[in-house]
Design a protein that fits this description.
By secondary structure, this protein is α/β, with parallel strands linked by helices. It is 27% helix and 26% strand. Strands 1, 4, 5, 6, 8, 9, 10, 11 and 12 form a 9-stranded mixed β-sheet that branches. It has a two-stranded antiparallel sheet with strand order 2-3. A two-stranded antiparallel ribbon has the order 7-13. Strand 2 and strand 3 form a beta hairpin. 42% of the residues are buried.
């Protein structure tokens, strides 16, 4: 099993904090956000390699991060450069995922985590859920506030299955959001490549999930604990001194 962490965005909503520094390397209580994500993935024994996708603009910073942190982690970590230099030319989350799968020739089960996730729960229970289903699984979280979910991917679920998915809706149907943490079975990875051949949005992976929902079940696992999407300066200011 492999893991891919998507960190190739330019985080314009966090400017000027992220003008010269990638969002996933912003510090939370003195430690880069990315470290917290890798530490959670490290606990999954089945995963033997982690690929971190970045862009040309921030490549050197991620390479420096890896050099400074290699001894802290047991699993093999690779930094992958998607070659983009500006927000206007970015590949988008789905594009970067497809890029990583092809570059690393991944054909086995895959954990995907968006690089702006901050959470205190482990991923072991989610893995066990995925093993039982052996289908695409999406990790969700109930924010219990319709105002807060408007900038996120909002889901309707029934019996642990996805019914509908909307990216950044003005009138949310629920308060359950996608965390940006997914398991894809190896048998489904070709569908990501097929999606890239369409003219559908290539940004948030939620668009891919919505497309897959047309032809298959998408299983839903609800996380409990602390979870934050580090997407705005307000949220970053709120969490930057928290202990996780």
């Amino acid at each position: 099993m492999k893991a891919v962490i998507l960190c190739a965005g330019f985080a314009t909503r966090l400017y000027p904090l992220t003008l010269d520094k990638p969002k996933s390397l912003l510090e939370i209580s003195g430690k880069p956000l990315l470290n917290y994500i890798v530490e959670k993935i490290e606990k999954i024994n089945e995963i033997n390699e982690i690929s971190i996708v970045t862009n040309e603009k921030f490549l050197s910073q991620f390479e420096k991060w890896l050099q400074e942190n290699t001894k802290k982690f047991e699993k093999k970590i690779k930094i992958i450069n998607d070659g983009t230099k500006t927000n206007e030319t970015r590949l988008g989350g789905i594009g970067d995922l497809d890029f990583a799968i092809k570059k690393e020739k991944i054909n086995e089960d895959l954990l995907v985590v968006l690089g702006d996730n901050l959470f205190d729960f482990d991923l072991i229970s989610f893995l066990e859920f995925f093993k039982k289903k052996n289908e695409v699984c999406i990790g969700v979280y109930d924010l219990k506030n319709k105002e807060k979910v408007r900038q996120l991917g909002v889901l309707e679920i029934k019996n642990q299955k996805l019914i509908s998915f909307e990216e950044k809706p003005q009138n949310p149907k629920s308060t359950i959001i996608s965390t940006g943490i997914y398991f894809f079975p190896g048998k489904n990875l070709k569908k990501i490549s097929d999606y890239m051949k369409t003219d559908k949005p290539k940004d948030g992976p939620g668009y891919l999930i919505l497309n897959l929902l047309n032809s298959q079940d998408i299983h839903v696992f609800e996380f409990r604990g602390k979870w934050f999407d580090i997407g705005t300066k307000e949220i970053y200011e709120k969490v930057k001194d928290m202990i996780f």
